[in-house]
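During the reporting period, our protein records have gained a structure token line. A sample record is set out beneath this paragraph:
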Amino acid sequence: MPDIALVAEERSDRGSSSSRRTRTDGRIPAVIYGHGIDPLPITVEARDLRGALNSQARGSVLFNVQVGGASHLVVAKEIQRHPVKNTVSHVDFQVVRRDEIISATVAINLVGEALQVTRAGGVIEHALLHLVVRAKPGDVPASIDVGIEALELGQAIRVADLNLPAGVTAELDPEMPVVVAAAPHGMELGAEEEAAAAEEEAAAAEESAAEASDASDEASDES
């Protein structure tokens, strides 16, 4: 997808009071930084920013921010939101080059229904909501979809199982679970009881073998 265009204005006022006034006026405070430039405080029209973030969710993660005649190729490194309204309150834009490898945090979306799990009374646990990846800016996906239709009770999808786009690698442990098809509570207890019984049987077998060995040794001594 093409870069997402944003027109911004440089801001001179700093501080929380100024940021509140900016948001009241329908603009969102932000900052551009990275690659040796001094941090550049800006504001962006709130409606334009919402549209840009919606476009990001559909594909591209690269923004082309125009400020006072200059153009900056950036990614949204951090998006701060209101704790109640969930509206965007501030954005940190990091300057990038198209040919460099960057780290980015990507949302993980679950796709489909795990009918075999739900029919058995199990629960789908979304253990990992975001994945940290490394890639060139143009290769970073907006999100990663994980199909769960084939999951069965007791199975898990791990980082190593994810189908990542070409040129994208995960920074997390490959064995880290992303989705777990957890068994019902009662079934989990049954499994634990079976494991305990197996341990008891193994201990009893070892004890019997030891007694048989002792008896054989005594018989040998008497002879």
The CA atoms of residues 64 and 212 lie 80 Å apart. The longest strand covers residues 70-81. The longest helix spans residues 185-222.
